[in-house]
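Re: Re: ligand-bound prediction request (bumping)

Still looking for help on this. To restate: I need the protein modeled with adenosine monophosphate bound, output as structure tokens. Inputs repeated here so nobody has to scroll up.
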Amino acid sequence: MQKPILISGIQSSGRAHIGNYLGMLKNAVDLQNTGRYQCYYFIADLHSITEDFNPKEKSKQILETTADCLAAGLDPKKSALFLQSQVPSHSELTWILNTITPMGELRRMTQYKEKIATGGESENVGLFDYPVLMAADILLYDAKFVPVGNDQLQHLEFTRTLARKFNSKFGKTFIEPEALLTETPRVMSLLDPNKKMSKSQPETCLFLDDSPDVIRNKVKRAVTDSGAEVQYDPAAKPGISNLLSMYSALSGEPIKKIEAEFTGKNYGHFKAMFAEVVISHFAEFRKRKKSLMRKPNKLRTILLIGSKKASRVAMLKMRSVQKNVGIAV
Ligand code: AMP
Ligand code: TRP
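Reply:
Sorry for the wait, this slipped through. Here it is.
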């Protein structure tokens, strides 16, 4: 029996942060290592260019995101690790899916609304169409599971709707994917615990390759709450609760146990310990990433090999899509 297929993407829009790691990347590595799935992971460069970017920096960002994935434990021997733009079927399927996508559904997407509300992004068609490209990414591979953070759930639901619509119009072609969430599906900003940690605001992120000094400083400056007790209470103490859930996810200790360890101790003491947990957890990562960044050609080769592997699967699927739509002559 064929193993179930699993896919996920990460945008090449900056260094990976602890939200990416605890929401998706760590899970992607753990799922890969179970050996129970056929895994496809990719760098979503086409998604990343829907936001303002510097063309001179882009290829470096792609390689850096690749290094982030590898340093975190994605293994090209176990998973296909590829570059979205090197598999043209993603763009081809997007076009076909566009023709069955109601504009109204895209207008409702929270991520789109947030991005245009800040006024920071030009309201380009790519930004609007972002969820359709994401649906194509997933449906092309008959993926059953998609490890993502909770900010992507609406896009996943949209993907399922689109798959159903396509199937009912053109005959059974796609399967409906399911999201896989972690215990920390939404890591919050260090400076505003009511907002999610996001690459678009680097000052609010703990990056996986931050140096020990930078980590200590950022954690020291992280916003905490009134009161003094180290207690998990997301409504009343969103700042300390955010740090507690990261602490628990990295150390593997239940939150209750960590609370007990810090009874009678203040926020400062807890933060100092938390910083050390982060520093030691990512010590190996920092070393691996540094060494990978010195070998850009190795990174390019890994992507090319992965992209070839993904292309074969994607092209076959495209062929059946074209047949079902009736454009294969
Ligand atoms: P991105 O960098 O936006 O491509 O995100 C890559 C993955 O990380 C996606 O699965 C996101 O849902 C996840 N992710 C991004 N930010 C966070 C966050 N603050 N907390 C949890 N997961 C996140
Ligand atoms: N939109 C996702 C994000 O920003 C990245 C992504 C693109 C993705 N295509 C995907 C994730 C397909 C899972 C499956 O985080």
